């Protein structure tokens, strides 16, 4: 009799644990359903790896080109009008850091935090990859008046340019996430378009795009800080004027292109000219399961599981899952039909 009673108690405990586990799964599913945005960790991992690669490419490029740049600055209109104010370089770095922190706080508080983080990291990675390429192919001299003091001594002897030298420089940049201590001689040559400006512009654009309406003053503050930071970089002669202009144009263009692609209806997205760009096709893959009609800018707790699902929400959860699967199948059929009309030789 005691054995039967013990078995009944064990069965009751197992059922209770199963019910709790099921409840947690359902709550997470309902939270995801309410946001209409699926959680896709593999895509996020791919974007993060791409960002690490692009950042590493920038650090490796700077570690390499430092010894090959000329130290005689070229003419710049703003530099001719305003004397060099080296003390403002610190505030330029600080502005870039503040803009980044403000953007990260906004992302953490947003209900679609993972999707926004994935978008921002992907856009920034493309921009920094472009920057690494331009740094290597065209080397502008640093704009400082006192380059010999600001820049580290260059190694001209090929026997001194060993792998260990490049490795030490790379690890130093990686340890400081690309920032350099401007109170000491620095590695020079990371010009043509400004990395600080890229960071500040993308941060300001992301905050303006995703901040809830009632917190929109946050956007004005971040934009003002970005402008101040850019001016500090120019006055300190950390960058040429063309560095800032190109960085602003490119950051605005790539950010706008990404959001232009995802705002097009999925059923006709592949018909546009931009779809045939690699950037747009990867964007379409990243955003394939995101329902933009229900993408609402709203803050919420990181794990808000307080609200219990209603029977209607449970029914909606299953219906929306089936609808998403059907929408993907319909889009693939339309895509195949469109391609067969463009090229009749394609066998559907």
TrEMBL record:
UniProt GO MF annotations: ceramide cholinephosphotransferase activity; sphingomyelin synthase activity
One GO CC term on file: Golgi membrane
TM regions (residue ranges): 42-65, 89-109, 121-140, 191-211, 218-236, 242-261
Coiled-coil intervals: none
Residues covered by the Sphingomyelin synthase-like domain: 188-260
Main location as per UniProt: membrane
GO biological process: ceramide biosynthetic process; sphingomyelin biosynthetic process
InterPro entries per the UniProt record, alphabetical: Sphingomyelin_synth-like, Sphingomyelin_synth-like_dom
Membrane topology term: Multi-pass membrane protein
Annotated localization: Membrane
Keyword entries, A-Z: Lipid metabolism, Membrane, Sphingolipid metabolism, Transferase, Transmembrane, Transmembrane helix
Short name of any one Pfam family annotated for the protein: PAP2_C
Family of the protein in this entry: Belongs to the sphingomyelin synthase family.
PANTHER family attached to this UniProt entry: PHOSPHATIDYLCHOLINE:CERAMIDE CHOLINEPHOSPHOTRANSFERASE 3-RELATED, SPHINGOMYELIN SYNTHETASE
Protein name: Sphingomyelin synthase-like domain-containing protein
